[in-house]
Amino acid sequence: MRETFAATVIEAMDRDPRVAVVLAAISAGMFRSTAIRHPGRVIDVGIREQAMIGVAGGLALTGMRPIVHSYAPFLVERPFEQVKLDFAHQDVGAVLVSIGGSYDASEEGRTHQAPGDVALLDTLPGWTVHVPGHPDEVRGALEAAIPGEDRVYVRLSGTSNRASLPVGGRLSVVRAGTPRSAGVVVAVGPMLDRVLEATADLDVTVAYTSTVRPFDRTGLSALVGAAGNADVLVVEPYLAGTSAHEVAAALADRRHRQLGLGVSRDRELRAYGTPEQHARAHGVDAEGVAKAARDFFLV
Predict the structure, then answer these.
(1) For the whole prediction, is pTM greater than 0.85?
(2) Would you say 147 and 188 are in contact if contact means Cβ atoms under 8 Å apart?
(3) pLDDT at 267 > cutoff 90
(4) Which residues contact 245 (CB under 8 A, 6 or more apart)?
């Protein structure tokens, strides 16, 4: 996903003189030749994440289209005040592209982990959030975002699904349940393959999205109506329950049950390990999702 991001942005810089890249040391080597070809449009501020956001906000105020990139905690959490003021409060746009996800860089420790990034951006108005599940979806999300003027967050991952799906903001049915199914499972981004494996023996509708904000409330309402059961399980690659309020809003007209799986809210995992070990510890590997799904749908 990271290589696709760089290639797509470089192509956009060659086409569109508004596009500028703002970095804080991370991935600077990927844009070295582009910086020579487009002087002044690749800006590396060094390890100064707050300045990175401030510079991007200033560029946006002049009519440029800044693309800002770093690890998720350095892009969203550390400079959050600048994200709030220099983009949201000034009502200007940018494309923020993160790597690292919740625990992709587990060997680097907690400083490089950001399971709360999407929930944090959720406190600000007007953000579109893409969580691609495949490198081809990265290209699609960026090609849609770069020509615009709005605020967009693209959350890249080290984990990919086997195949890409269309990027359009709507929930896509990957596997349909019967009209008397147990309910609906929403898989976000790179969680799809493990969700399909985990629910293979359950009569549920599995839907997919790589765009979580705005959330497809209308689509979820329709899927629940077709499923005949208003039980919804959302599996997200970040903080568990991040989209719970979206599900509640989508199904406000009917009684429903919901469960959110993701990185645990009540457990601080103080370990390095591998991303696979972190997923297992938080119950979002295929085995953990299967157990949670059975316990939820088969009560």
Answers:
(1) yes
(2) no
(3) no
(4) none
